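User: Last request for today: this protein with zinc ion, please.
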Amino acid sequence: MSVLLGIETSCDETSASVVEVTPAGARIRSLVILSQDVHAIFGGVVPEIASRAHLTAIVPVVEHALASAGVTLDDMAAIAVTNAPGLVGALLVGVSYAKGIAAARGRPLIGVHHMEGHLFATSLDHADAVPPFIALLVSGGHTLLLDVPAWGRYERLGGTRDDAAGEAFDKVGKLLGLPYPGGPHVERLAREGDPARHRFSRPMLRRDQRPGDPEYYDLSFSGLKTAVRLAVEGSTDLERDRAHIARGFQDALVDTLVAKVVRACRERGRTRVVLGGGVACNGTLVAAMRQGVDSLGGAVFAPTARLATDNAAMIAAAGAFHLARGHRDSWDLNAHASAPIPGLIPGG
Ligand code: KG4
Ligand code: ZN
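Assistant: Here's the final one, the structure of the complex with zinc ion:
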């Protein structure tokens, strides 16, 4: 058995986690997530404020994670830290701190790609959420459809061409006068909506699309957001129409995501689907995905809320995989605003 420390500071959550790794899999010993609520005032994440808040939080967050797991830095097999993608100033806080403690205690340092972390998150909740699977990662910054034949081997099937799914939820939330981040509020409001009142067209989803055509798997949400804006502007009583518009938006987005995942399962012959990212908290999406994938005899694995959103346990779990493969990063590990997920394999 070995234990790893994970550190995540790519956006607006300062998180640290101690994860125990045995041949049977990874288990969370402690997980601390400090969310920066201050950004709600500005209606979005303000990078400079995020970096400063990480600076204040990083030491107590890491110390608390170690203390609640009953371990010290000397017990760590490695220090895993998110180094891409994300806000560079925010990432640098985690990377610099991780380097500092790893160098001081002579521990291996492992840089982890944030999206690869999201792929590992669900396996911490469900032992069966392991490759081969189709992954749908839907967060505030990313929307990615991957085929995962094995850990460390990722084939990008498609992704968004414009807004990320979470970004679309947040923008629609703003249009409907809801607090930031809008995702959970839009979902709540949509429950009261009538699906027949606003039927928006399903973006980038047509029957004539075929495998090999990039549109077969790609997604796009900016047109849907514009359709929502026009519906809001055209409403004579927004108070009355808000829930119906939220419902129409969510139905269009969910239908599209389910259709693309079902296509991927069929074409790749996969029976497992792993969801990740903040939008995987959306119960309507998870239920619709289950319905779509059940009809193929498959299973959908969705993370619990604390592992769907940004957290350091998933970073430690991905770090453990790279550690086991003998990977170590050097002291010149840097932070990158964008970077391809490692282990990308060319399309088949
Ligand atoms: O993964 P995450 O915590 O951060 C990023 O890496 O972006 O995802 C945050 C996103 C936000 O856009 C938020 O609105 C969305 O996840 N989200 C939801 C729900 N809960 C969070 N979107 C739809 N329905 C939800 N219940
Ligand atoms: Zn994320």
